[in-house]
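To whoever is on call:

I kicked off a structure prediction for a single chain this morning and the downstream step that reads the tokens threw a length-mismatch warning. I double-checked the sequence; it's 135 residues and nothing unusual in it as far as I can see. Pasting both halves so you can look.
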Amino acid sequence: MSGFLFDTNVLLDVATADPAWLSWSEAQLRTAAGQGPILINPIIYAEQAPAFASAAELDQWLDPAVFLRLPLPYAAAWSAAQAFLKYRRGSGAKTSPLPDFYIGAHAELQNLTLVTRDPARYRTYFPKVPLMVPE
């Protein structure tokens, strides 16, 4: 599969009209839409949900005609767990795998380009994942 998996921070920039990031994030959506599907998974959906008053409002904003909803591949859990172990061995404080680990593992497993403005964790734990990030 190919396409662009959008990290929550980029989608929230657009949904909330973030003054610092709106322009960059909208440009990434336009670029991705011209090159392939715009993808989300259940973790991205869940992270996006607090910005909306209802599931219906969120579903309207994440229009299925624009955002292709992928299931989170079961096999991504292994890669997410391995990234989490590396994180913990490096003195990471969290006690359970972070959503970013599942998102990165999903992108890695399905050869997706990840669009994010927070590349550090992805570069550290998923260095093979192609990233679209601010310059």
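Update from on-call: the warning came from a stale cache, not from the record. Cleared it. Sanity check on the structure: The two ends are 26 Å apart (CA to CA).
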